[in-house]
Automatic annotation (TrEMBL), chains A, B:
Its main location: membrane. It is found in: Membrane. It comes from the Eukaryota. Belongs to the SLC26A/SulP transporter (TC 2.A.53) family. Keywords: Membrane, Transmembrane, Transmembrane helix, Transport. InterPro entries: S04_transporter_CS, SLC26A/SulP_dom, SLC26A/SulP_fam, STAS_dom, STAS_dom_sf. It comes from Rosa chinensis. This is Putative SLC26A/SulP transporter.
Length: 655, 655
């Protein structure tokens, strides 16, 4: 600035408070705080503070096993409600379990096993009152497609079964570890848009798979993508069975009608809940009476009587397929967690109680570890079953216990009844359930509110439908993460103007009536200043100044003299960002302008202080608000205008 | 809120301006703008606007070949300066080129070839006036370690050479494409901290590799990590040659002394620039006179006379090693770009001219494509050589042309002179150059200003030194990206208070004297609200309210009634974020409190509007500033206190 001597500070500006440098904290405290916010944002240990040791023990027990917390307060009224809802969900769980086990290419009986042990574990450890535990279609499909890519379930059923148990074991361990190490936020990276697209895609794929059952085909592709399924279906049109097809369509129609009715009149929730079991009974009786199984209608066949056999010895840890089982476990674990946690959270919102995501993960993990040792495969909290549970008026996790007992009875005494159940019924049950997962109106909402979310959703959908489940998931995840990175790499910068009748300075884009101040350019940076954006920001700020100078020159206003950077939205800054500010300061100086900062946050002040940038910019050029910065600049403009030095214009532009 | 009937709006608040919903823009405009900001932040086509076609052609030519822009303005004075600096850097380029080619396990003559063609290409296409083109140690080392892992340079020199050309070709194509598609910002993801750590690590590794030359060892490990190098060195202590070691140490000492002297007195820059060539001449004369090459002192040996042979036919595109060449090309390309662009940018900052990163990438790409066809390997703008160029007073890229001509003369007439140059001289030159890359004082600065950047820097360093160059790079990159993701996944939330003598509301953590307002909790969210943080934010806000209610209860202040969310720093929001706000609104309602928003930005208002959240919250509860929101709340507190309904406290807490 050479010979321009500022008369500073003017009396009226000095009165306003200074921007504070936050009090220095020891390094260890900073680390501790940031770790705490990262891993313990919900502060789960708060209730343990200032309690005697015995109380701590009780609280700890209640923390790990919430049943000890609500158990003592359990009443007869609760039991009545839980009995009704438990029996309702059992009637849904039995046919669904069998169907999904078929979908996973596993013995149908596994679906019943999986509705017995895991719900009992969850009832003790879970904190949701509405979640009904069971297998889910998407995880079943994933198991089939990922394990099936390595081992053929028909040719090598024992190995396939053992790998499925092993995958379930890994899934359980992974889930429990995520919860234990408080890494639950990893699930948050599956955004709402991703899940909608992914679920709809998976539902589409599952429905397509059911064409096998509906059309009564013997041979079918092992691929899950639309192209191979369609090729497989239309290459054997001569083998289609119209009887099976007609039956299937009628069944689906029946299920959809009952669901529509139940949705219209929530009091009759049990109609849609009972419908699958009704169909199973109807179908089985029909087949038994007409001996249709001898005329090509495929039936479930023999189901072994008896409770879950132990399967701990079946887990294979030394196998060429170990990595397949591991990968399957991890991916199904994440998908299952995403669904289970979202379901638990939604219902807890309705009933206004709190769910600890990390604790839920431990519960899910333990239930899957226990399941893998007792002939179950991956379970979680499916939405459909939990919604029925909620509608049936469940009060606590006891409804899961009731369901488990009902399934136990089925396993002990009723399995022979399923011998004649036609497969087409199972296919119809799956399709009807899946159609509810395709939420096109949600996709329309995404399009309306946020185009990028819509793109993420669609990429997940088409990735799953035309590629594979994993491709869809990775695609959507990559896009979502890219969005976050792009937000930081290309932060928005705004020009601010004074909102009329107000002291506030806001984006002239948003407030079209905001007016700019002659001689002063006010910019706002809308993201943390990090390595990823420091080069961009430097160039962008330079361009703002260029454009403003061009505009001023064209309009003949008084020339630009101050650049105010509003740092209110700059949440953090790193060393690249500090260098950037330093360079911006130099660029602005070289143009004969003056850099003024407004409202830097605590992180920014801390780091500017440590790197001596505050001195370079000058403490007196850092203001609490944009308004104050503008006031100070206006004062200076006024002073320098009457300053004789200003009469040589060269001093401003040639320095 | 049931029966509490708000008398709203109060007259004094109504007067203040409303938060604006930004004017609706057509979807296509939004897309266009955001693409423009992402890929054309520097608006490179601005100068073409409103120009006649012939002028556009000239401008276009000047854009692609900046030499047409500055060429016509070239003066004799410039030539004088460029001659001096060109000859100076040639004297550095010749020994360095030979040394680095040896480091890459390539024939030494390639180092000279690479200082001939690429500088000529850069002189025409590059926009930096100070960059001196040449090979660099780190990229040479990378080539050796990545290609060497697949093909042994000693056993199969031809294949190795051809793969090196192919890798250079891929690197050039990749660099040019990055520039062409305006993806230069990818390089920005290599943060300053990453580069410091990475460069220091690579320098350490390169120095360790030179122990072979210094100690005169014949056999040496192909690994680059410290453990294998140390094992290799100390397993053959009996083969160490003390003569060579002593000579090497003297040479290094000489080079360091001259550099130290030149740094102290920048006028004598040429002393340090000439030192390597002096050493080469001295060493060669010494060996020639004493016939030391017959007594075990390794020398360069025969160097072919003549200019670069064409190597276009040597590029191998059908080979089992193609993927290795491709990978090597991509990684060396990124590293080379990072160094070259950073160097170009730094010097343009000093001299106050503009460099277009994307254009530079195209220039680098073209120079490497041309190089790969004329027996050169990867070149970029090394810092050491460019600094010498700058200090020697270069004016334009003509200094590169001068250097190229000097190297051409060397190739045509002087190569036999290098026959007796001892390898230990080359090792000394490399070590002396590398020691300058270990910037420990920068690492200390990182530690002081930003601990996380220090961790990133150290992980890059140790990753390179104990793992490999790629491991170090990936580690640092992953940590840097994780930091960005973590910033978004765990945004800061602050409690705000009124700064004394001001209308401003700021974090009570930063402004320890800021005071809170009884009955009102003011929170600020410091990041965009995305899927990755919406769950966290919901829980965190709930915890803030819990803590505030506990505090209020303990202190006996008037009970909490309003929660103001300051959205000033929320730069963007997605559909998950909108749902989160909706849920927060419900949570707050259920506690009998009222949610008030202050200063939502344009993106937030746009999406809240589209999703009807504005109606749910109520337009009258969205204010322009925190101050106005507080004013409105205070007014309501005052009104409801005298309201008879408020005398039943139950209505507030039991709804």
């Amino acid at each position: 600035m050479g010979n321009v001597d500022y008369v500073y500070p003017p009396a009226n500006v000095e009165a306003s408070p200074r921007v504070a440098i936050p009090p220095q904290q020891p390094f260890i405290t900073t680390i501790k705080n940031s770790l705490k916010e990262t891993f313990f944002p919900d502060d789960p240990l708060r209730q343990f503070k200032n309690q005697p040791a015995s109380r701590k023990l009780v609280l700890g027990l209640q923390y790990v096993f919430p049943i000890f917390e609500w158990g003592p307060r359990y009443t007869l009224d609760f039991l009545k409600s839980d009995l009704i809802s438990g029996i309702t969900i059992a009637s849904l769980a039995i046919p669904q379990g069998i169907s999904y086990a078929k979908l996973a290419n596993l013995p149908p009986i596994l679906g019943l096993y999986s509705s017995f042990i895991p719900p009992l574990v969850y009832a003790m450890m879970g904190s949701s009152r509405d979640l009904a535990v069971g297998t889910v279609a998407v995880a079943s499909l994933l198991t089939a497609s990922m394990l099936g890519a390595e081992v053929n379930a028909t040719e090598n059923p024992t190995l396939y079964l053992h790998l499925a148990f092993t995958a379930t074991f890994f899934a359980g361990v992974f889930q429990a570890l995520l919860g234990l190490f408080r890494l639950g936020f990893i699930v948050d990276f599956l955004s709402h848009a991703t899940i909608i697209g992914f679920m709809a895609g998976a539902a589409t794929v599952v429905c397509l798979q059911q064409l096998k059952g509906i059309l009564g085909l013997d041979h079918f592709t092992t691929g899950t993508d639309m192209v191979s399924v369609m090729r497989s279906v239309f290459s054997q049109t001569h083998k289609w069975r119209w009887e099976s097809g007609v039956l299937g369509c009628c069944f689906i129609f029946f299920l959809l009608i009952t669901r529509y009715f139940s949705q219209k009149k929530p009091k009759f929730f049990w109609i849609s809940a009972m419908a699958p079991l009704t169909l199973v009974i109807l179908g089985s009786v029909l087949v038994y009476l007409t001996h249709a199984e001898k005329h090509g209608v495929q039936v479930i066949g023999e189901l072994k009587k008896g409770l879950n056999p132990m399967s701990f010895g079946d887990l294979v840890f030394v196998s060429p397929y170990l990595s397949t089982a591991f990968k399957t476990g991890i991916i199904t674990a994440i998908i299952a967690l995403a669904e289970g946690i979202a379901v638990g959270r939604s219902f807890s919102m309705f009933k206004n109680y709190h769910i600890d995501g990390n604790k839920e993960m431990i519960a899910f993990g333990m239930m899957n570890i226990a399941g893998s040792c007792t002939s179950c495969y991956l379970t979680t909290g499916p939405f459909s079953r939990s919604a029925v549970n909620y509608n049936a008026g469940c009060k606590t996790a006891v409804s899961n216990i009731v369901m488990a007992i009902a399934v136990m009875f089925t396993l002990l005494f009723l399995t022979p009844l399923f011998h004649y159940t036609p497969l087409v019924v199972l296919s119809a049950i799956i399709i009807a359930a899946m159609l509810g997962l395709i939420k096109y109106e949600e996709a329309i909402h995404l399009w309306k509110v946020d185009k990028f979310d819509f793109v993420v959703c669609m990429s997940a959908y088409f990735g799953v439908v035309f590629g594979s489940v994993v491709i869809g998931l990775v695609l959507a995840l990559a896009l979502s993460v890219m969005r976050v990175l792009l937000f930081v790499a290309r932060p928005k910068t705004f020009m601010l103007g004074n909102v009329p009748d107000s002291m506030a300075y806001r984006s002239v884009e948003q407030y079209t009536n905001a007016s700019n101040i002659p001689g002063i350019l006010i910019l706002e940076i809308d993201a943390p200043i990090y390595f990823a954006n420091s080069n961009y920001l430097r160039e962008r700020i330079a361009r703002w100044i260029d454009e403003e100078e061009d505009r001023v020159k064209a309009s003949g206003e008084s020339s630009l003299q101050y650049v105010i950077l509003n740092m209110a939205a700059v949440g953090n800054i790193d060393t690249s960002g500090i260098s950037m500010l330093d360079e911006v300061k130099k660029i602005i100086d070289r143009r004969g302008l003056k850099l003024v900062l407004a409202n830097p946050g605590s992180e920014v002040m801390k780091k500017m202080n440590k790197s001596d940038l505050i001195e370079k910019i000058g403490q007196e050029w850092i203001h609490l608000t944009v308004g104050e910065a503008v006031g100070a600049c206006k004062f200076m403009l006024h002073t320098t205008k009457s300053d004789p030095v200003k009469e040589e214009p060269g001093t401003w532009n040639n320095v």
